[in-house]
Amino acid sequence: MKYPVVIIGGGLAGLVSSIELARAGIKVLLIERKAYPFHKVCGEYISNEVRPYLEHLGLNLDGLGSAKIIRFRFTSPKGSALETPLDMGGFGISRYTLDQALYELARKAGVDFQLNTSVQNVVWQNGHFGIETSNLEQVEAEIVIGAYGKRTRLDKQFDRDFMKMESPYVGVKYHIKGNFAKDLISLHNFKNGYCGMSAIENEKFCLCYLTERSNLREAGSIQEMESNVLSRNPHLQEIFSNAEFLYDKPEVINEISFAPKDAVENHILMAGDSAGLITPLCGNGMAMAIRAGNMVAREVGEYYSGHHSREVLEQSYAKAWQNEFALRLKVGRNVQRFFGREVLSEMALGFFKMTPPLLSMVIKATHGKKMEA
Ligand SMILES: Cc1cc2nc3c(=O)[nH]c(=O)nc-3n(C[C@H](O)[C@H](O)[C@H](O)COP(=O)(O)OP(=O)(O)OC[C@H]3O[C@@H](n4cnc5c(N)ncnc54)[C@H](O)[C@@H]3O)c2cc1C
């Protein structure tokens, strides 16, 4: 089987790039390990930076029941709180619903899918890619877009530098119901971690936290950690005591890394988390993945219009990616140092209370301008 473009991974970056390429008349195969719809560890708050663009793609975000979010609350492990309006704001929608809606748009645009199929290796030879999949089919492609998320076995095969570094974080997510404000995103700190909560569709809320693996190891289990560590923050204690938890067990992911990555690796154009994951406290990874999906499709479109050679395509994409995202990732990594540290996050909160414009500046530095439709 031969395709001009194969996309590995059908999260936001993969789905958006597939829609754009198919609408530009380029034949695309998207290979996704799972089948839609499915849940993902993600805080499910999306910055309005990409709202007009998603609507332009054809998503009816109001129709899908997304919640409008206009306020941000930040609490320290001891429970002190700071609240601020969000200049740009955002919306809440589950990945279960959002990814399914984008998948439907991609199908309509003519994207071919192989679902429940995992890419196991990609080999670059004589100017073409050979792609090995779990269904043992060999696929050939001229261009491969790597949109497979934070970390997979492929990263090991490509010998990527970040795989040699420590990845000490664990992410946990629930959907819950309860009597909470719908227009507010909260970020509650606890020892060695932080937990976000915001409304999504159907009167539900997403509760999602990131913590160091050592916290879990010391506590012995997720439940013990939630009772003995997270619940020391009184705001989290209230949530864990009063909310209705809608899953039998949480969604969990391991070995999360925020180390820098390269946007082009082994001639593969990486988009979304596979090119670099911003710390979740910035609430902006999804907007970045959507933007990167659009950006990579634009560059590949230039290549197929004959404006770019492959070499220029790779250079131009790597440069565009750096210009758009490198600074945000750096600010995100630096800001994360203040979170989950009992004394530091208390100090940061006190400092932001005294100088509210500084908090707006940090939020701005981790977000982009509204994306043109
Ligand atoms: C704890 C936590 C909370 C977060 N909260 C927020 C938030 O509130 N707001 C926000 O904007 N961002 C948040 N993020 C970040 C956000 O989730 C990601 O940045 C975003 O999902 C990236 O999209 P993506 O398309 O790059 O990857 P993904 O959405 O992860 O998609 C990758 C896809 O590739 C598939 N795949 C993987 N390997 C293979 C393979 N070998 N073959 C085929 N398919 C494969 C996977 O099944 C998956 O569907 C959070 C992240 C974490 C860890």
Short description:
The protein is α/β, with parallel strands linked by helices and 373 residues long. It has helices at 12-23, 51-57, 95-109, 153-157, 213-219, 222-228, 234-242, 285-304, 310-336, 342-354, 356-365; strands spanning 2-8, 28-31, 45-47, 67-75, 81-92, 112-114, 119-125, 128-133, 138-146, 169-177, 184-190, 193-199, 205-212, 244-245, 251-256, 264-265, 268-270.
What does this structure look like?
Helix 1 links the parallel strand 1 and strand 2 (28-31). The protein is globular and about 60 Å long. The protein has a single domain (2-365), classed as FAD/NAD(P)-binding domain, CATH 3.50.50. It contains eleven helices and 17 strands. Strands 3, 4, 5, 10, 11, 12, 13, 14 and 15 form a nine-stranded mixed β-sheet that branches. Strands 1, 2, 6, 7, 8, 9, 16 and 17 form an eight-stranded mixed β-sheet that branches. It starts with a strand and ends in an 8-residue tail after the last helix. Helix 10 packs across helix 11 (356-365). The mean pLDDT is 92. Helices cover 35% and strands 28% of the residues. With 373 residues, it is α/β, with parallel strands linked by helices. Bound molecules: flavin-adenine dinucleotide. Residues 8-14, 31-34, 40-46, 118-119, 147-149, 152, 154, 171, 196, 208, 210, 256, 272-273, 277, 280, 283-287, 289 line the site of flavin-adenine dinucleotide.
